[in-house]
Amino acid sequence: MAFDIDMIKKVYAEMPARVDKAREITGKPLTLAEKILYSHLWDGTPGKAFTRGKDYVDFAPDRIACQDATAQMALLQFMQAGKDKVAVPTTVHCDHLIQAKNGATADLQSAMNTSNEVFNFLESVSDKYGIGFWKPGAGIIHQVVLENYAFPGGMMIGTDSHTVNAGGLGMVAIGVGGADAVDVMAGMAWELKFPKLIGVKLTGKLSGWTAPKDVILKVAEILTVKGGTGAIVEYFGDGAVNLSCTGKGTICNMGAEIGATTSTFGYDDSMERYLRATERADIADAANEVKDYLTGDPEVYANPEQYFDQVIEINLDTLMPLINGPFTPDLATEVGSMNEKATENDWPLKVEWGLIGSCTNSSYEDLSRASSVAQQAIDKKLVTKAEFGINPGSEKVRYTTERDGILGVFENVNAKIFTNACGPCIGQWARYSDPKNAPKNSIIHSFNRNFAKRADGNPNTHAFVASPEMVAAIAIAGRLDFNPMTDKLINEDGEEVMLDEPTGWELPPKGFEVKDDGYLAPQEDGTGVVVKVAEDSDRLQLLEPFTPIGTDLSNAKLLIKAFGKCTTDHISMAGPWLRFRGHLDNIANNTLIGAVNAFNKQTNFVKNQLDGEYGAVPATARAYKAAGIPSIVVGDHNYGEGSSREHAAMQPRHLGVVAVIVKSFARIHETNLKKQGMLGLTFANEADYDLIQEDDTFNFVDLAKFSPDVPLTIEITHADGTKDTIKANHTYNAAQIEWFHKGSALNKIKEDNAA
């Protein structure tokens, strides 16, 4: 029996009439994404057609999922909302706060010892407010969601950018900041600009060494890290039908790396097989009754150029395995072409680690195919040159793969089996005692992100992304330029051998099995549950409402002008900083320490205009705040790319930053800034970025007239007394401007609930 089956049946009962009405008012056939969007309007039955990329629309998501690092801040905010229980089904998953070091058992115990205060808080607040709780070790949020909660045609939001993984089961699943999740938990509408649509037509069928991972690695190459911004990517075609459900999940998961709002596939036989294999036959039966509404209309897929804003076509028959990286997930190299490119760019060809797992590639199918490669190392007497690390996606997958001997294969090649958790993928990897001074090296993994310092904290680690089976092959060979389709290896007997093509199972032949999946259901009535946060805790801190910035904003100082890529990892690092995700003041000490200062090309070294000295970004911001002086952050393109973490907005806000002015934003981060009552602005003229000088002071000339679709005027005073006046665009609507006036979206929620 599926979780929340009555809710799912209600969605299916309402969907046909709503989709039919949407077809009528739009006057055209609909994509799957449009069917799900129009059937989840806050007002119910559609009443108007929306303009893609322009109209802000209120939606009613079916459910919410939160991972432990972001759940802390989300639930601390929800505790202020004045509600007794969450309004929609919600779950919390403890997967980020478990560091990979010695292996699953020891690492899980270490996490319990060091983060028990946080886990207890999350368990108790979940129990109190009717939230399902998945214990540490239960699995990685997105794989657990795919196995238990995702359903075709549904809409969900999650406080992690890779919530999009659930698109593999035909959902519109979107990563958001915690403040967005709080809105929905509190029974309010969730607002989103109606997305544009990108269609990806897949033809043919994967074979040999090519895997679902290679599809999204190719799409990332085509669209780049910002090419999907503001759009839903919808996959279709016979090639899409030929993919497994978990393979679809892999493709949707990494859609976050192209900036896409989400990605999705239409309901098909592979999804039905997966639902039944994961003991959700009741969902499969219900979905089959409305299956025509759970995929795009035939006319759309027959003539995609008429219905999508952009169309890409990929032939799976000819798609080659890819390796993407380093330092960005969209830099693609075909396997077999790496030697020349690596030599040209001075990338280390020797590979020290091969890491398989994360929310992207930790399914039964992934591990079985990778283990078929690892087994060949044993059978063909090869000595594995790189170290192996494995993170199973869930306890269900771990238990089943152990039962079926798959994990044993990895153990026989001396792999470390880490906890069912994010581990190295989120920077929770104790690889070095001093990562800042660690040597230049290369690793390869099946994760989704490979930004500098992401996995192990070492800026000199060149991380490359590939399919699990390719990771296994390259780890065995120990070289980045190894091509298993053409290259031979020398075994222990001095013989030349080649690796055979990987094999595996879409689903376990003997079915899934698990003894304890790690789930704790909340009490029916949690009013008696006490949520305790110690006053002297350095891990948790109750929140104080932000004070409105106000419209009389002048004499604001430049805090930092960020140069080049500035992701949420640069703004609020993960890794060891995850321990402070529930303590705003403590985690604020990592604010923008990874951003490169445009004036000296150094990190965490900016000029304090009060004394002329250079120092750390957080300390400089605190100095301005203590003096009652607001500060400004300036950035480049796609500012805030990466994770959904709202800390990247809350921390600057806490430290007195009032505005972030950039060439362009990543979608989630722009929304997070708005939610925290800040100004998220873009240069009307991108060249104005070059006008910003190190000692600049900013005056907002017409902020008192802040209104939708009207640019703001900013006067910039330079150190020599000269001035420049620039225009800054924004995407605030009337409701979001009200958040600014109230100090934050949460302040507005509290006010409305108190009324």
From TrEMBL:
Residues 34-478 form the Aconitase/3-isopropylmalate dehydratase large subunit alpha/beta/alpha domain. Keywords: Iron, Iron-sulfur, Lyase, Metal-binding, Transit peptide, Tricarboxylic acid cycle. One of its GO terms (cellular component) is cytosol. It catalyses: citrate = D-threo-isocitrate. Its EC number is 4.2.1.3. One of its GO terms (biological process) is tricarboxylic acid cycle. Residues 558-686 form the Aconitase A/isopropylmalate dehydratase small subunit swivel domain. It holds the Pfam family Aconitase. InterPro entries: Acnase/IPM_dHydase_lsu_aba_1/3, Acoase/IPM_deHydtase_lsu_aba, Aconitase/3IPM_dehydase_swvl, Aconitase/IPM_isomerase, Aconitase_4Fe-4S_BS, Aconitase_4Fe-4S_dom, Aconitase_dom2, Aconitase_mito-like. Pathway: Carbohydrate metabolism; tricarboxylic acid cycle; isocitrate from oxaloacetate: step 2/2. It is an enzyme of class 4 (lyase). Belongs to the aconitase/IPM isomerase family. This is Aconitate hydratase A.
